[in-house]
Amino acid sequence: MCSKMKITKSTKNYSACPQIKELLNECDSVLIGAGAGLSVSEGFSYSGKRFEKYFSDFKNKYGFSDMYSGGFYPYKTIEDSFWEKAAARYSTFIEKHQNKKILFLELGVGFNTPGIIKYPFWQMTLQNPVSHYVSINKGESYCPTEIQNRSFCIDEDIGKVLERL
Predict the structure, then answer these.
(1) d(C-alpha 11, C-alpha 40), whole Å
(2) Looking at the DSSP assignment, which residues form a beta bridge with residue 105?
(3) What is the pLDDT of residues 115-135, one digit of tens each?
(4) Residue 65 — φ and ψ, nearest 5°?
(5) Cα(105)–Cα(91) distance, integer angstroms
(6) Please, are residues 20 and 134 in contact by the beta-carbon 8 Å criterion?
(7) Are 28 and 162 in contact (CB under 8 A)?
(8) Average pLDDT over residues 47-75
(9) For residues 21-38, b (16+ Cβ closer than 10 Å) or e, as one string?
(10) Which of 165, 162, 53 is nearest to 108 (CA)?
């Protein structure tokens, strides 16, 4: 459903920080979705010398060219049970807060994997009329027009915006 929504680009900037602060103070809970852009805003690189130094064995074995790509490989590990428990806690949290004032705070989430954070956040904001959506991401801050009146999309450096909050 979210992929068919009309998308609007950010027009808001630092001036929205007082309104976002108010939302943070008034909401019942905050759900943070963090993407690769959060790390990138702090200067973290997913490839290059650091990758070669610490992950060359993964590059040789699996053919990865960067850590980001390696994060999506379907490894078979004992951590599967950890992720299942985390998914259950997430579902419980969402169910418990579905009709409450929840702020969906998206940091550095782009369109590489929108089905993981972005689309669910948009959908939950659309379904819950007392919720709000905030996206902070340099170069990729958007929201559907259907939730635009309850959204803040800030196309700025994440670190600088968070300092203002």
Answers:
(1) 22
(2) 32, 134
(3) 889 999 999 999 999 999 999
(4) -110, -10
(5) 17
(6) yes
(7) no
(8) 81
(9) eebeeebeeebebebbbb
(10) 162
